[in-house]
Design brief:
The complex is a heterodimer of chains A (336) and B (356).
Chain A (H helix, E strand, L loop, with lengths): L1 H31 L4 H6 L5 H10 L6 H10 L5 E3 L6 E3 L14 H36 L4 H14 L3 H15 L18 H36 L2 H8 L4 H13 L1 H15 L3 H6 L5 H11 L2 H29 L2 H4 L1
Antiparallel strand pairs in A: 1-2
Chain B lengths: L12 H8 L10 H26 L1 H18 L1 H8 L14 E2 L2 E2 L4 H4 L17 H37 L1 H16 L2 H16 L9 H13 L3 H14 L3 H8 L4 H37 L11 H9 L3 H4 L2 H28 L7
Classes of the chains: A mainly alpha (336), B mainly alpha (356).
């Protein structure tokens, strides 16, 4: 357990370091990247006086590092933002205020997160089940028609961009066949008044759009890892001890063959929590990705910056979780 | 960037250019001629190996044929639209063209579907020629994908090779930068930085055929896409640098630069070629995604992503799926062909990594 603790401490230190660097780099990109964030902040019709005001309001008259530290201080305490005389309180946790609506950025993100979560949960379940089942099936039937069909479908699935799949799904199931509703903003969880059914039907198409792309990748990875595992000695041993083929595959094969899938899954979940940008946009689900697209189109820098940081945070945390899970499963990792 | 988007005449030539000489950038002119001979052999055998494998697979051959045709199509776009007698920008909004059943903007069915006059019909709303937009869009989509892949490949190969070869502090710094790039949410960052870069480069990207969105997409996609390749190259170089032929080169006094360019890089070209082939469809999709979201190539400049955006705008694709079929078809067929070719190249050159 000692080596485990050392491993975790080392990993966590590196992670905190990476998080600080990422927040700093992101801050620099958005605060100093644009030609004039102050002009962006004050919008289309803007007098030079108002730009100057916006400059002060954004704290851009202060030194470089001060700007970063005062921004990050919002994570620990509420702070005041805005020009002197027109200051407003930004509640903890504070990541600035939207240029567009002057709302706290964290409020905007909090509002968007349940939608993103709803999209992510169903999509992950759907593509994992489909990908692992079909991938295993293809491995067991290697070279047969079933295998060829599944592998072919996976090749096509990988090549279907989300905008194409999404628009096709809307065209077929909503517009033409009229069997599914247009997504509504009212449903954010399966526990609301619309119940599980309403939630399920509302998010089914976004799930399918994501699952087509992702399950294709999971089929490929599952298939190749299962093929590798099926050839291992311990599988033959298990069979020779009289275990049935199904039991061998499920009890012994799955554990070894699916470890890479678990890794992939962890990382993909981390990625998805930062917002399924295209899917949310196409199905008008006002999640984190949807919010990011609109903020990017409107030049609402505080919102895009905060969402980028949040998404990077999810990715990094997912990496740590995957590493920790791996270290538990496979003791050799800890030594590395 | 280039003045006019000129595409390489055949699809692997992007990678071909990479493999022809070991020098990945024109920064080292003296190394190229002397290394040319030895490296050309490597390059030929590398592509030769890939070709042998591709030739045996009917699917890979078909994929290659589709790519060659699509690239030819893009290169010859001005010629083809000239034969058709149309251009991608002329608008036709008069009600006897664009007002079907009293739906303003919807082309009459004669103008909506393929005809001798308009090979793929007219766009809803503005009445521009779809074939001309699709052909010119192919140029822009492919140029963006190929150039951004080239940027990523050069950055990834050089930085990965440097990290693996020098080790120590160089490795630590480059590896940390790789970690940083890999931790960024790719699409989100590209999405929010593209408008910023476009405003930096000046202009609104709304000029006809403007190079601005093309340049900014190439820079952003290229600059944020190298880290994964660099990590793979670094791993390969770590084991390469311990091998005898590198030892030998070192013992006769070859400089680091010459060892990296002549010994190391030619030996990682196989894996680089594999990743380059797989990066191209990713970048085609990324361009389509960004333009679809309205932050990449913008109207009136055509690209496949921009055409998808136009088909979705005003829900025209629900009125008639034909408007969706053209850009979506071009996109899916091209991406599929590149993916299938990528699989074949990977099987041929990198049999160990059957995972990806």
């Amino acid at each position: 357990m000692n080596s485990m603790t050392t491993f975790l401490v080392r990993r966590l230190t590196a992670t905190v370091g990476l998080l600080i660097v990422i927040s700093f780099v992101t801050f620099c990109l958005f605060q100093f990247g644009p030609a004039d964030p102050a002009a962006a902040a004050c919008g289309q019709e803007c007098t030079p006086e108002r730009v100057a005001e916006a400059r002060v309001a954004l704290g851009m008259d202060k030194p470089f590092l001060t700007q970063y530290f005062s921004y990050m201080s919002g994570l620990f305490d509420s702070r005041t933002v805005g020009a002197p005389g027109a200051q407003t309180l930004c509640d903890w946790p504070c990541l600035g205020k939207s240029f567009q609506t002057n709302e706290d950025v964290t409020t905007i993100i909090e509002r968007a997160l349940p939608y993103t979560l709803s999209v992510a949960v169903g999509a992950v379940v759907l593509w994992t089940v489909a990908g692992v089942t079909l991938g295993t099936l293809a491995a067991l039937r290697k070279g047969k028609t079933t295998d060829k069909l599944i592998v072919g479908a996976a090749s096509v699935g990988v090549s279907l961009p989300i905008p194409v799949t999404g628009l096709l799904l809307l065209l077929v199931f909503v517009s033409t066949l009229d069997v599914l509703p247009f997504t509504t903003n009212a449903i954010t969880s399966p526990f609301g008044p619309e119940g599980f059914d309403g939630w399920f039907l509302n998010y089914l198409l976004p799930w399918v759009a994501l699952a087509v792309l992702f399950s294709a990748q999971y089929i490929r990875v599952t298939r190749s890892n299962m093929l590798e595992t099926l050839g291992e000695d311990f599988m033959r041993t298990a069979r020779s001890k009289g275990l049935s083929r199904t039991k061998t595959v499920v009890r012994h094969g799955a554990r070894a063959g699916l470890t890479p899938v678990v890794t992939m899954l962890g990382l993909d979940i981390g990625l998805l929590l930062g917002g399924a940008v295209l899917t949310e946009q196409i199905f008008s689900v006002p999640g984190v990705g949807f919010t990011a697209v609109h903020a990017a189109q409107m030049g609402d820098l505080p919102v895009t910056m905060a969402i980028t940081m949040l998404a990077a945070f999810f990715i990094i945390v997912a990496n740590v979780v995957v590493d920790a899970v791996y270290a538990v499963i496979d003791p050799r990792v800890r030594a590395a | 960037m280039t003045d006019s988007p000129v595409l390489p005449s055949r699809p692997p030539s992007g990678a071909d250019g990479e493999a022809d000489g070991p020098a990945p950038a024109p920064a080292t002119p003296p190394a190229t001629p002397s290394a040319g001979g030895g490296a050309a052999v490597t390059a030929r055998s590398l592509l030769g190996t890939a070709w042998l494998r591709i030739r045996r697979s009917r699917i890979a051959l078909a994929a290659l044929a589709v790519i060659v045709l699509m690239v030819l199509f893009a290169v010859l776009a001005p010629l083809l639209t000239g034969i058709e007698g149309q251009d991608p920008y002329t608008t036709r909004t008069s009600p006897d063209v664009l007002d079907d059943y009293g739906t303003p903007g919807l082309p009459l069915s004669y103008y909506r579907y393929p005809s001798g006059e308009h090979w793929l019909g007219l766009e809803p709303g503005l009445g521009r020629d779809i074939f001309a937009r699709m052909a010119h869009g192919a140029r822009i989509s492919l140029v963006i994908a190929l150039l951004s892949t080239a940027v990523s490949v050069v950055l990834g190969t050089v930085l990965g090779a440097a990290a693996g070869y020098f080790g120590g502090k160089v490795d630590m710094v480059i590896s940390r930068i790789m970690d940083l790039f890999l931790a960024f949410p790719h699409l989100l960052l590209v999405l929010s930085l593209t408008p910023i870069l476009q405003s930096r480069l000046g202009g609104t990207a709304l000029d006809r055929g403007s190079l601005l969105p093309i340049a900014s997409l190439v820079i952003i996609l290229g600059f944020f896409g190298w880290a994964y390749l660099a990590r793979v190259v670094r791993g390969q170089v770590l084991s390469l640098r311990e091998q005898e032929f590198v030892e030998a080169a070192r013992s006769y006094g070859a400089s680091h630069r010459s060892i990296i360019l002549r010994q190391i890089i030619p030996n990682v070209m196989g894996v680089v070629l594999v990743y380059a082939t797989m990066m191209i469809p990713t970048n085609i999709t990324a361009e389509a995604a960004l333009s679809f979201l309205g932050v990449g190539v913008k109207d009136p400049t055509p690209s496949w992503g921009q055409m998808l955006n136009a088909a979705q705008a005003g829900n025209w694709y629900l009125t008639d799926p034909w408007f969706l079929a053209v850009p979506a078809g071009a996109l899916v067929i091209t991406v599929l062909a590149f993916n299938l070719l990528g699989d074949a190249v990977r099987d041929a050159l990198d049999p160990k990594s059957s995972r990806g």
